[in-house]
Structures are given as C-alpha cells and as structure tokens.
Amino acid sequence: MGILEKIKEIEDEMARTQKNKATEYHLGQLKAKLAKLRTELQAPPKESKGGGDGFEVQKYGDGRVALIGFPSVGKSTLLTVLTGTTSEVAAYEFTTLTCIPGIIHYNEAKIQLLDLPGIIEGAAEGKGRGRQVIAVCKSADLLLMVLDASKPHAHRKILTAELEAVGIRLNRRPPSIYFKKKKTGGMSFNATVPLTRMDEKLCQRILQEYKIHNAEVLFREDCDMDDLIDVIEGNRRYIKCLYVYNKIDVCSIEEVDAIARMPASIPCSASQQLNMDGLLERMWDMMALVRVYTKRVGGKPDFADPVVMSADRGGTTIDALCRQIHKTLIADFQYSLVWGTSSKHYPQRCGLTHPLEDEDVVQIVKQKVTTGGEEGKGRFKSTSTKGPARIADREKKAALKT
Ligand SMILES: Nc1nc2c(ncn2[C@@H]2O[C@H](COP(=O)(O)OP(=O)(O)OP(=O)(O)O)[C@@H](O)[C@H]2O)c(=O)[nH]1
Ligand SMILES: [K+]
Ligand SMILES: [Mg+2]
Asked: For ligand 1, what atom is nearest to the CA of residue 70?
C-alpha cells in the first residue's frame, strides 16, 4: 500500500471514530500515525537532489512575501499592481505556471513578492504543482492568502487545511511544551498549568506511536494532542499570514465591512486598485521590520538607505545590526549611541544586547586598534587600559556634540 492510500485509510477511520473520552487515546494514536505519514510524504524524492523542477528563486531584499491562493483569485494582478513586474493575467485558471518574483518598494525597504501558480484541494498530497508551491511558501516571511471576496468563505478553510497538512502553521506560535528524548528513565510527564485536553496516558500513547519510551515532557500551556505531535515532529513552520480578500468591486458595502472586521484580513481590489495602500500598510505591520539609520561621527544619518532588520529573522539588537552591516564589525565594536524610541535619552550609550526599534538612529563606535591592523584583534584589547578608554571617552564626547 502506498503512502497516499495509508493516509486515506487513517483519515477514513478518524472520520468514523466518534470523539469522546473513551476514543481519545485511540484518536491520539491515529493522529500521530497520520502525522508520521505526512512527514514521509513531504520528504523530497531520493533520486533528485536539488532537482530542477522546483521554483527556486533567489532571495532578495529585506523580506519575502508569497502569494498563495486558488486559481484566478487575482494573484498575478496583485503582483503586477504592487511591483510593476508583469505576470500574465487571464480569466482562465492556471495562467501562472511558475514562480514570478517582483519587488515592492515601501518605506525605503525592498520586499520580494512572489507570484505562484494557483493551488487546489489535494495540493498537500502533491496535486497540481502543490509540492513546489508549498516549498516556496515555507521560505516566506509572510504569506498573502488571496481569496475571492465574492466566493464562499470556506475556501480559506480548505487552503488552511492544505497548509496544515504540510506542517505550516499560520499566525500561531510554537506550542509551549518542553520535550526532550532521553536514553533511559521512562517518561516524565509534568505541567505548570491545569491541562484540560491532555493527560499522561494520552501523551504516553502518542509517544509510543513514535517509539519513544524515555522522554521528559513539560506542558507550559493547555495544549492538545495536535500540539504535542507538532513538537515531537519538530519540523513545523510558523508563518504569518494576511488574508487578502480580492475583487471587492463586485461585493456589497456590508460584505466589505464584514471582511475588514475579521482578524488578519484585508479587503481590496487589485484590478480596480482599491485599498492597495491599506494592503501595503498591513503587510508592513505584520512583517514587523525595523529600519535603522546609521550615522558616522559628526555626520548626518542616511535616511535614504536604512538597514532593515526583522524580529523574526536575525533579531533587532545592536548585535544583529553589526552582523548585518559587516561580519567583522562585531570584533571592533566598543559601544553604540542610539537616538530614537528605543533609547531612554538622546543619545543613549548602548551595548550589543540593546533591542532597536523602527526608525532609530545608531552610531557604532569602534575600538581603536593601536598596533597592526589585523581584523578581530580589537576584541582582545582590554578597554580597561587607560589609552583606549581615554580615546573612547574623547570620541564619546565628540559624538555627543553632534
Ligand atoms: N472584478 C475583479 N476582477 C479581478 C480583480 N483582480 C483580478 N481580477 C480578474 O481575475 C482574473 C484572474 O486574475 P489573475 O491575476 O490571472 O489571477 P491568478 O490568481 O493569478 O490566477 P492563476 O495564475 O490562474 O492562478 C482576471 O480576469 C483578472 O482580470 C479584481 O479586483 N476585481
Ligand atoms: K488566471
Ligand atoms: Mg496567476
């Protein structure tokens, strides 16, 4: 029996099984079996390593956003309007057959937007170009799930289920469960909160399915069996998603109003260019990008060319800033001066762990290397010796004047 048949068999059995306290343990076991099969299904075929039929597009810019949706909802129209890059638009389904990249210029940042072929129910099991589309989605910082506002809202649920089936979790945090496999000692099961959907026996049954007999499990929130399976599998991707309800030009005001009130949802019309600014603003907010303007001693900040950082990728500390500017900068770092909403006073002298906020101005003060010019040497020069400290002091005073 192939993987797909096995999956079907388990899904059928789950559908037949009534949900109650008595069947809970059996259901947990079935869910674990299903998760294992789905992971097996996602594994790339052994023969082709980095094969050519994928949609690999080089990452570019300060963040990556992917357009996902059923055929003909207006993904390519959106790409064309937002980036100026033409992606073929037509009234028939499956117009787009590959991944088309474009660039959105917004708030002095460059955001890569990827147009993709439409996906259909069954994509998770490899229907259509589902596999390639999903691989691109997994590489995105934000998904725009494009929906036809005039069509049944159930489409959102179907697509979400497809993404769930391949281990993509939308707008969620990883479950707060500490899980560690051990060599011996059996299972230790603990919780810091009352558990209403999980107990020791259920946990044991699920672990057994994974042939894990020794482990430490600590629940820090009221999780269910799906959460536990996600943590055991360990391959889930937590991605932000904005639900873009397109084609509102054919909807009533009431419908548009209802969409605008739903969480993480935005109504728009790509072809009529309605609410494109609203869409960009929501995208920007959800990506949580932080722009930092760097300045030299005595110079003005470069407001046209910020360093753009992401809380989700790399972080937004001074340390992350230095690494992003140049890999050797950390070794030369002495302290930084920060002007902006993250600083208590103007400027504030900050170390590497200081978290920056959007539109902060930063000046990096490097250590003075007194001998030779070898990279990285500065790190080992103690700042407690009087020489460099005095130089730093002088530099600080100079910086404060600017
Ligand atoms: N009424 C209306 N039609 C739109 C809107 N946006 C796009 N369309 C139309 O919807 C049809 C499909 O648009 P595409 O941009 O090709 O859709 P797609 O999602 O890229 O389609 P595939 O690549 O085939 O998956 C075209 O006829 C567009 O003109 C909109 O805001 N309102
Ligand atoms: K189309
Ligand atoms: Mg298209």
From this structure: 25
Nearest CA residue ID for atom 16, ligand 1 = 89
Query: Residue 307 and residue 290: Cα distance in Å, rounded?
Result: 8
More confident residue, 296 or 373: 296
ipTM over 0.95: yes
Q: What is the pLDDT of residue 45?
A: 64
Residue among 231, 234, 238, 253 nearest 313 (CA): 238
Determine whether the shortest distance from the Cβ of 250 to ligand 1 is under 6 A.
yes
Q: Is the CB of 204 under 6 A from ligand 1?
A: no
Q: Which of the two residues, 376 and 256, has the higher pLDDT score?
A: 256
**Rounded CA gap, 361 and 343, in Å?**
10
Please give the number of the atom of ligand 1 that sits closest to the Cα of 93: 24
- C-alpha distance from residue 144 to each of 16, 218, 292, 318 (Å): 35, 34, 26, 30
Is 80 close to ligand 1, i.e. is its CB under 6 Å away? no
pLDDT at 384: 39
- CB of 74 closer than 6 angstroms to any ligand 1 atom: yes
Q: For residue range 136-189, what is the model confidence (pLDDT) as tens digits?
A: 999 999 999 999 999 988 999 999 999 999 999 999 999 999 999 999 999 999
Q: Is the pLDDT reported for residue 241 higher than 90? A: yes
Which residue's alpha carbon is nearest to atom 7 within ligand 1? Answer: 74
Residue 379 has pLDDT above 60, yes or no: no
Q: What are the chain's domains? A: 16-40+175-233 (no CATH), 63-171+237-287 (3.40.50.300), 289-401 (3.10.20.30)
Residues in the chain: 402
Count of other CB atoms within 10 angstroms of residue 113 = 26
Distance CA 386, CA 351 (A): 20
Flag whether pLDDT at 11 surpasses 50. Answer: yes
Probe target for ligand 1 pocket from 70, 95, 251, with the most ligand atoms within 8 Å of CB: 95
The pLDDT, as a whole number, for residue 373 is 47
Cβ–ligand 1 distance for 350 under 6 Å, the answer no
For ligand 1, say whether the CB of 91 is within 6 Å of any of its atoms: yes
Distance 95 CA to ligand 2 centre (A): 5
